[in-house]
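hey so i finally got around to running both of the ones u sent me last week. sorry it took forever, my laptop kept dying halfway thru and i had to restart like 3 times lol. anyway pasting them below in the order u listed, first the sequence line then the structure token line for each. didnt double check formatting much so if smth looks off just lmk and ill redo it

first one:
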Amino acid sequence: MNHTQLTALGRALRLLGEHGEALTATTPDAKLHEVKADLRRALDLLDESVTGAAPTTRCPEHPNGPVDTAAPDLCLLCETRRRAARRSEYNGTGPAAPRTPEHTAPSRYGVRGDRPQPQQRWLPELWNGQEWQLCGTPRRDRREAELYLAAARRGPRPAMAYRLVHEFTDYEVLRVWGTPVKVDIEPLGNL
């Protein structure tokens, strides 16, 4: 569709929209004939601008592919691929079935599957007057941990300071809220 066709079709459809808004139960026949003529004009413009065949399937990958009426998207090509995947899972030959190697060579250092995967966590901590202590469950999501600390700071009994520690094979302090001050737990400073 070129720019001229697009402009003419848009104008015709906008005119039809105006006609639709103006329709009432008492609209005269002359006005209805005018709407009919404008509707035909818009259909003719649409017929001129459409160049390809109408899609036979609802598949975005194969819109004019072969049709399978049993498929949810009517596409025979995609449904064949889905059926093959289901069949291979059922038979145990597909990617869902774990593959066991026939002969494994022993390794002095082990294989990757034997080593534990590194875990990444964010630890919310509060200053209790003497040291940093964990104040909530370690989180897997940084944003969730920051939201937890924000809620704790707004709570009825907030701590003097909070911090967020990133744990990933080592510890790294990411952010500190407040100022931790060492507080003597004995009254009057141990006098």
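and the second one:
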Amino acid sequence: MSYNKVLDTRTFAIVTLAAHENIEHIHNRMPVIFKSDALATWMNAETSKDDALELLQENRGGDLAYYPVSKDVGKVANKGSDLIKPIA
């Protein structure tokens, strides 16, 4: 494989932490969801380890809204925005 081929490869990682107390009753872990202003700092190679760890804690989803949805959302064959509509 040539060096240029490696540079064209795109990858990603999902960083998870213990769930914020607001949603830990749903699941004990959750992905970090960076706010747009924090993402540039996270991706900057000059960001210190302490600053990166602080960013993780600041982006644990404390401001997320949640509500029950249909169990159909868990079936991969189902598609559409109706799946995320709140149910009573």
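quick thing i noticed on the 2nd:
The longest strand covers residues 16-18.
anyway thats it, ttyl
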